[in-house]
Amino acid sequence: MPKVSDLFFKTAIVWLILGIGAGLQMAISGDHSAFPAHAHINLLGWVTSAIFGGYYALNPTKAARKIAMVHYGLYTIGLVVMLPALYLMLAGNTALEPIVAGGSLIVAAAVLVFAFVVFSTGTVRTVSDLSPATR
Question: I need a labelling partner for 70 at 20 to 30 A (CA). Which of 77, 116, 124, 128 fits?
C-alpha cells in the first residue's frame, strides 16, 4: 500500500476514535450542542480521510507523486486546526471562530489540491525515463 494511503487510513482511525469519543461525551452529558463538530469530525476526519486513502491505494502512480503527501499534510493540518476549535467554539468559546475559519480555508485548499491530483495525468517521471540526451 502506498505510504500516503497508509497515513490517510491511520489518521482516519484516529478521527473515528475522536468522533466516537465526542458522541459518547454528548450522550453521557445530555448536552448535544456540539453535534455539528461531532458530524465534522466523523465526515471530514474519518470518512473523507478514508476515501482519500482508498483513492491513493487504487492509484499508486498518483500516490507516488510528492503532491499526494502535500495533500495529506495540508488536509491533516487543516483538520487539526479546525475541528478542536469548532468543538470548543460550539461549547461557548466564540473567540475561536477565526481559528475555525482559518482551518476551514486550509481544508478547502487541500481539497483543491486533491482535485488537481484527480484531474491530472499522474505521470511520474524518473531519471531512467529520460533519454540520454536530456539527462
Answer: 128
* Residues across the chain: 135
* Gap between the Cα atoms of 32 and 130, Å rounded: 59
> How much of the chain is helix, strand and coil, in % rounded to 5?
85, 0, 15
Q: What is the pLDDT of residues 68-101, one digit of tens each?
A: 999 999 999 999 999 999 999 999 999 999 999 9
Close Cβ partners of 101 (under 8 Å, ≥ 6 residues apart): none
CA distances from 84 to 101, 121, 134 (A): 12, 36, 50
pTM of the shown model = 0.87
Question: Which residues, 6+ apart, have CB-to-CB distance to 117 below 8 Å?
Answer: 62, 65, 67, 68, 71
Q: Enumerate the domain spans of the chain.
A: 3-121
Contacts for 113 with CB less than 8 Å, ≥ 6 apart:
67, 70, 71, 74, 75
